[in-house]
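The protein record quoted for completeness.
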Amino acid sequence: MHIDRSTIPGQGAVHHLRTRSGDRFALVTSADGGKNILVYHGDGDEPVQSVALGTDEADQFADLLHSAPLPDRVARLERLVDRLTGDEFRP
């Protein structure tokens, strides 16, 4: 994936993303923390759709995009720490 980041003076930042297959979208982060996902069609410069996300919604969406949910990642880390410290049989 190719990602370009730009600052929008006084507004926030925008990340333009192009997937391996050529699909394009952008993530706009406003100064107040709001997020908008912009979806483009073909090589057009204007987005065909905008999806506004609240901070909590953006966090939930980001968690879904991880290869494993947060509770699973925490449990994995706990198991690794237990192995390192020898507490494998901790209740």
Observations:
- The radius of gyration is 19 Å.
- The mean pLDDT is 89.
